[in-house]
Design brief:
alpha/beta; 4-stranded parallel beta sheet; binds zinc ion
Length: 342
């Protein structure tokens, strides 16, 4: 059984970051937006960033072409079609409504568009997609509160949680504690990005940022979290709380969170007993895909079954769907893992 045919769960992918050059250019034309490239090759050159801030600049530039509900639906459908070919059975995807609303779209248009995509992904490709809208650090907490209220309204259309992304140094997570407490009250999972960088370029500690986020937002899962690997007290805290990490090796390399894949903290996290899933983060921007991230994780010592089971554990969907995902895992003829104790 090749890696491509294992059932897969992906809990860390930004829908806006899945859109390739062809679709981006098509949307730009349709919406009369100018992009600073005309071909896929030119786009990849633009994606050769220097650091995380450069990445954010490119992200803003390209995501700005998505302007209508139909654009968001198309993005979900196209990604579902792609991951179906990699054996994905469940995707929990982020999208960023706040930036779109700040540019004049209504919350309804953004949420309806993505939620229509959830329905289409299921009908056309048999892929279960669930959504976690996300705000970025630094934005007005009132807007995060509004996002949470809309997320609550769309729970029956596939929204299962809310996240926090962007530059961790922009502000402490505590600034949004009230909004995320309200999310928990609405039955939404809290899944922030934190601990993405073991050490930031300015020398500040990613572990401190992760610890602050864990305390302030009480998340059930953390996106990245690799900064915990060298902090035994933080690892203990995460194990006690049963926190699952969504790890994205290629993303960490491309944003220069790590210097090389050989230095990736995934093996340390696994040895410390932290359940880790694997995701692409922004596959079009980082020039990767789900099968490749699984292969990289296996190279780093993970086993496909462990990744899948961590995915089920970390998924924010309802218990009925979780049981179905578990049953898929149990009926899969997984290969024995070379590092398993005998
Ligand atoms: Zn991310």
């Amino acid at each position: 059984m090749s890696a491509a045919s294992f059932p897969k769960i992906e809990l860390h992918v930004h829908l806006e970051g899945t859109v390739g050059a062809t679709t981006l250019l098509e949307m730009a034309k349709r919406n009369a937006v100018r992009l600073p490239f005309d071909t896929a090759t030119e786009m990849q050159a633009l994606y050769d960033f220097r650091d995380f801030r450069d990445f954010v600049r490119v992200w803003i530039l390209t995501t700005n072409v998505m302007r209508r509900a139909g654009d968001f639906t198309q993005v979900v459908e196209e990604y579902a079609a792609r991951v179906a070919s990699f054996g994905a059975v469940y995707i929990e995807a982020c999208f960023s409504p706040v930036e779109r609303v700040m540019r004049g779209l209504s919350w309804e248009e953004v949420f309806e568009g993505y939620c229509d995509g959830v329905a289409a992904a299921s009908e056309r490709y048999g892929i279960v997609v669930r959504l976690t809208p996300e705000a970025y650090r630094g934005v007005d907490p009132q807007l995060v509160g509004e996002m949470v209220r809309y997320a609550g309204r769309y729970r029956d259309r596939g929204v299962v949680g809310v996240g926090l992304g962007g530059d961790e140094r922009a502000c402490p997570a505590a600034r949004y504690a009230a909004a995320f407490a309200a999310a928990r009250e609405l039955g939404l999972g809290v899944v922030p990005h934190a601990g993405e960088f073991p050490r930031f370029p300015d020398g500040s500690s990613g572990a401190d940022s992760l610890r602050e986020t864990l305390v302030a937002l009480q998340p059930v899962r953390v996106r990245h979290g690799i900064a915990a690997a060298d902090d035994p007290a933080l690892l203990d805290l995460m194990r006690d709380r049963g926190i699952v990490l969504d790890v994205c090796p290629t993303s960490n390399l491309r944003t220069r969170a790590i210097a090389s894949l050989a230095e990736h903290p995934l093996p340390k996290l696994l040895r410390a007993g932290i359940p880790c899933t694997v995701g692409t983060d922004d596959p079009a921007i980082f020039d990767t895909d789900l099968a490749r991230e699984y292969e990289l994780a296996v190279t780093l010592g993970a086993d496909p079954r462990g990744l899948y089971e961590a995915g089920v554990r970390g998924a924010l969907c309802d218990d009925g769907l979780k049981s179905r995902l578990l049953a898929i895992g149990e009926s899969t003829p997984w290969p024995s893992h070379p590092s398993e104790p005998t």
